[in-house]
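User: Here's a chain of 169 residues. Predict its fold as tokens.
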Amino acid sequence: MTAVEVVQLLVSASHRLAGRPADGPAPGPSDERVPRVEVRSGLGLVGGRYFARPAHRNASVTIMAAESLPLDIAPGADLRHTRRNMLLRGVDVDALVGATIALDSGSGPVLFAVNRPARPCAWMDVTVGPGAQRALRGRGGVRCTPLSDGVIELGPATFRVVAGRDATG
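Assistant: Prediction complete.
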């Protein structure tokens, strides 16, 4: 088990980065970060834009490493800019594609299948800053399917690879 920190959580009810980046993000709340999220197996984050959407079930939750944020480009960059759901400090999530992971912030472990990379798009140069798309290549986080129900909250947590890449059992 690895000690990590759940730095930020974001649940967005709408897709704000649609269309051409030059037109800017769609209107929405200025801050969609939350102190806790409810996770539902096979469905995603309660209240999230991809919750229970068949086309997004294998990518309904996105997790990113805080260490991957391009702070040299945008010192204040966070989940409001990258549009990922969970920001964790202390684990290289980008290296875990194909693994099953467990994240426990105190309410019991929540399992996720890490399916594929969350590749940065041209929007990153608009929402984070010029050069962010290139800086985030290979470090944009991962797209996951929740395999169990549970709650994730901000603060200290434990992280474990359950199956797949370097499983710890």
